[in-house]
């Protein structure tokens, strides 16, 4: 394996605002770091090297990310303030100080998202893809728009007028709404208020009228007179509400976890508003009216130029391959490419490493389907976190159960925003005869493990799949993840220990795996301390890691200690990072990068020099307190030397990336690298496996 990249001083292309909210702190602020991550996503929307429709997707992702940030993180800060919490965050700021920073930067970010989106629309118009306004249509198109409205839109709408007998209506989370002002029944009275929900999701946000694309809300606003026939419509204004969706429940008091989660989902719908987005043409009096009715602070009202709800603009209904990324075709792994050999025969000879989406997720689905159909397979046990809607995965487990195999599906009902889908899967599998476990009290099960038990030669043999990503074929085409298929007996024994612990709370003894909250944290820290001792003895000590988030104080302190001992640390962290790299005397040996691109970087790799015999782990856990203390996570060692080298080659390629990489400096500022070398393009063109 080639030597890992040494320290370098790349030329910055552009910078985001600093994440160092408290200059006296050894840590970066978590919320500011998240906002810096979203700025990096927005930079992809600005980057003219990306095709226009892909830039629009990045802008939509940026808006969607911000929605979730408000629903969870900002909502949590509001709850802390309401509860009188005076405990500072990791970087020393009080909740009210963090909220002030968040409000300041999110207003600027939302304005920037809309500005970028409008610029992309203008560039699309030059390419013949235009979003029209109603007042730009000719008479024939207006007639067609009216006919479409009356036949396809108005039947779905529900006008809700507020008066003494009709209270202000409930405004659902993330819904687009029209605030309609109607002339008062008595000419000199104030106008009446009505709310009409824009039915995005039920109907497409973009409507094709005679080959011209229009926003659904524009068509609705132009025809409110049809909905309120007999009343004069004075105006219609767009607004949007974001609510707190971070609900808690007492698992210790829950006799039925499934019923408890279902009840929590119903309560989530009625969380307190944490953000009100309004168009900047909304009269001030109407803004105050909405504030008062929804009990929301003036500081949480965001006046914007539009379009609101950019997260709904993920894909335009246009067929323009020239304005999109070239179609990506995942590789078929050479060792499991043929149809004539059983996957279990292949795994008896060698382990298979898959790098998604460059290697096809079909191999994982085929592994499960072969296990379900094979009469020699006795049992299939699997953890499921975010499943998606794939019928093949559900069908394989269901058919295996119906065939009389022992099927255990450990379905995490508390996977945020996927609870309803997971509840549906749990009920279907139970009806098929599978053993369904709904979760563990006090913990989320985030591990990605499948265990297959097969009768062979008078005995039993275990086959295991371990991954960094969910069993979700859709995201497997969009996220970068790693999968290991193996018949290693000791990893099979560890997987057996895991499932016995998950289903029976049996005390587990793992041979190789690091499992949170049992041994992952201590295992990571012990290995960093070993590297520090190698450095103190004058050896070549290093640690290379990749994860989505780095926020856990104990892990950051362990990295600081390793750096101070002389360990060379290089990490690729896509999202939030609370560690300050490059600070003399504290972290001068630590480099932090963030890598973004066409695919969402999602894999987790942790590699240690180990005195010249590198040790590599991969799995489901980020270095966050929730992952290491409050989730069941699995990190597996890479025991086969040539596969271990392939993991290190993956890290070397990503650390050499210039196209989508940003470097974090000691001041908490991310600098974009200049250059066109793309790790993702190299993986797509040259399969490493």
CATH superfamily of the largest domain: Endonuclease Chain A
Shape: globular
How much strand content do the residues show?
15-25%
Largest sheet: 11 strands, mixed
Rg is 27 Å
Set out the fold topology.
Elements: E1 12-15, H1 30-46, H2 52-82, H3 95-126, E2 131-132, H4 139-153, E3 160-162, E4 176-182, E5 192-198, E6 206-209, E7 212-215, H5 216-222, H6 224-227, E8 233-243, H7 257-268, E9 273-279, H8 284-294, E10 301-304, H9 343-349, E11 352-356, H10 362-373, E12 377-384, H11 391-402, E13 406-411, H12 419-432, E14 435-437, E15 444-445, E16 449-456, E17 459-467, H13 473-476, E18 479-486, H14 489-504, E19 514-516, H15 520-536, E20 542-547, H16 553-565, E21 568-573, E22 590-595, E23 600-601, E24 605-608, E25 615-619, H17 625-629, E26 631-637, H18 641-655, E27 661-664, E28 670-673, H19 679-685
Parallel strand pairs: 2-7, 9-10, 12-13, 13-14, 15-26, 18-23, 20-21, 21-22
Antiparallel strand pairs: 1-28, 3-5, 4-5, 4-8, 6-7, 8-9, 11-18, 12-16, 16-17, 17-18, 19-26, 20-24, 22-27, 24-25, 25-26, 27-28
Helix pairs in contact: 1-2, 1-3, 2-3, 10-11, 11-12, 15-16
Could you explain how this protein is built, in words?
With 689 residues, this protein is an alpha/beta fold. The chain folds into four domains: 30-125, Methane Monooxygenase Hydroxylase, Chain G, domain 1; 141-254 and 274-296, Polyphosphate kinase middle domain (polyphosphate kinase like, 2-Layer Sandwich); 334-508, 2-Layer Sandwich (Endonuclease, Chain A), CATH 3.30.870.10; 515-685, Endonuclease Chain A (Endonuclease, Chain A, 2-Layer Sandwich), CATH 3.30.870. 36% of the residues lie in helices and 22% in strands. It contains 19 helices and 28 strands. Strands 1, 15, 19, 20, 21, 22, 24, 25, 26, 27 and 28 form an eleven-stranded mixed β-sheet that branches. Helix 12 links the parallel strand 13 and strand 14. Helix 1 runs antiparallel to helix 2, helix 1 packs parallel to helix 3 (95-126) and helix 2 (52-82) packs antiparallel against helix 3. Mean pLDDT is 90; it is low at 1-5, 7-11 and 249-255.
């Amino acid at each position: 394996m080639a030597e890992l990249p040494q320290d370098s001083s790349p030329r910055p292309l552009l910078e985001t605002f600093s994440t160092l909210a408290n200059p006296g702190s050894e840590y970066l602020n978590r919320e500011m770091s998240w906002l810096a991550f979203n700025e990096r996503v927005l930079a992809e929307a600005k980057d003219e090297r990306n095709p226009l429709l892909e830039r629009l997707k990045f802008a939509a992702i940026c808006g969607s990310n911000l929605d979730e940030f408000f629903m969870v993180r900002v909502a949590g800060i509001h709850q802390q303030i309401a509860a009188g919490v005076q405990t500072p965050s990791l970087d020393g700021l009080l909740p009210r100080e963090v909220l002030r920073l968040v409000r300041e930067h999110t207003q600027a970010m939302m304005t920037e998202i809309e500005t970028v989106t409008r610029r992309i629309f203008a560039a699309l118009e030059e390419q013949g893809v235009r979003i029209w306004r109603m007042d730009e249509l000719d008479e024939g198109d207006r007639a067609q728009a009216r006919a479409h409205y009356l036949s396809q839109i108005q039947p779905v709408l529900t006008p809700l007028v507020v008066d003494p007998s009709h209270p202000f209506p409930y405004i659902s989370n993330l819904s687009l709404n029209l605030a309609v002002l109607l002339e008062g029944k008595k000419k000199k009275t104030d106008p009446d208020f009505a709310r009409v929900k824009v039915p995005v999701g039920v109907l497409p946000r973009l409507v094709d009228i005679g080959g011209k694309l229009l926003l659904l809300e524009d068509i609705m606003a132009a025809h409110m007179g049809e909905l309120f026939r007999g009343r004069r419509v004075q105006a219609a204004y767009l607004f949007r509400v974001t609510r707190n969706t971070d609900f808690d429940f007492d698992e210790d008091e829950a006799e039925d976890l499934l019923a408890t989660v279902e009840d929590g989902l119903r309560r989530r719908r009625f969380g307190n508003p944490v953000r009100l987005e309004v168009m900047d043409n909304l009269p001030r009096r109407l803004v105050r009216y909405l504030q008062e009715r929804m009990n929301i602070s003036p500081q949480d009202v965001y006046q914007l130029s539009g379009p609101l709800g950019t997260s709904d603009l993920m894909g335009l209904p246009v067929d323009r391959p020239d304005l999109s990324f070239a179609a990506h075709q995942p590789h078929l792994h050479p060792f499991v490419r043929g149809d004539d050999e059983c996957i279990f025969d292949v795994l008896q000879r060698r382990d298979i490493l898959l790098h998604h989406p460059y290697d096809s997720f079909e191999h994982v689905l085929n592994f499960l389907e072969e296990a379900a159909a094979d009469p020699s397979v006795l049992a299939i046990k699997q953890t499921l976190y975010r499943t998606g809607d794939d019928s093949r995965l559900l069908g394989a487990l269901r058919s295996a159960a119906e065939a009389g195999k022992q099927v255990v599906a450990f379905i995490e009902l508390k996977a945020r925003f996927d609870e309803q889908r997971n509840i549906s899967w749990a009920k279907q599998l139970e009806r098929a005869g599978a053993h369904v476990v709904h979760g563990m009290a006090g913990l989320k099960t985030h591990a990605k493990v499948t265990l297959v038990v097969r009768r062979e030669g008078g005995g039993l043999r275990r086959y295991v799949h371990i991954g960094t990503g969910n069993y979700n074929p859709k995201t497997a085409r969009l996220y970068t993840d790693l999968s290991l298929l193996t018949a290693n007996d000791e990893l099979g024994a560890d997987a057996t220990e895991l499932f016995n612990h998950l289903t029976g709370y049996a005390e587990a003894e793992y041979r190789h795996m690091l499992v949170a909250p049992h041994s992952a944290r201590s295992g990571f820290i012990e290995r960093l301390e070993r590297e520090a001792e190698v450095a103190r003895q004058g050896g070549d000590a290093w640690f290379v890691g990749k994860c989505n988030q780095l926020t856990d104080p104990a892990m950051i302190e362990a990295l600081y200690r390793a750096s101070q001992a002389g360990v060379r640390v290089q990490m690729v962290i896509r999202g939030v990072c609370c560690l300050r790299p490059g600070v003399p005397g504290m972290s001068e040996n630590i480099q932090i990068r963030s890598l973004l691109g066409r695919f969402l970087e999602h894999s987790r790799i942790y590699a240690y020099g180990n005195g010249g015999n590198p040790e590599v782990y991969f799995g489901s856990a980020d270095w966050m307190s929730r992952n290491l203390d409050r989730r069941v996570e699995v990190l597996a060692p890479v025991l086969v030397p040539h596969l271990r080298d392939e993991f290190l080659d993956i890290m070397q390629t990503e650390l050499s990336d210039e196209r989508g990489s940003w470097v974090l400096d000691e001041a908490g500022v991310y600098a974009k690298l200049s250059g066109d070398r793309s790790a993702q393009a190299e993986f797509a063109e040259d399969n490493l496996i």
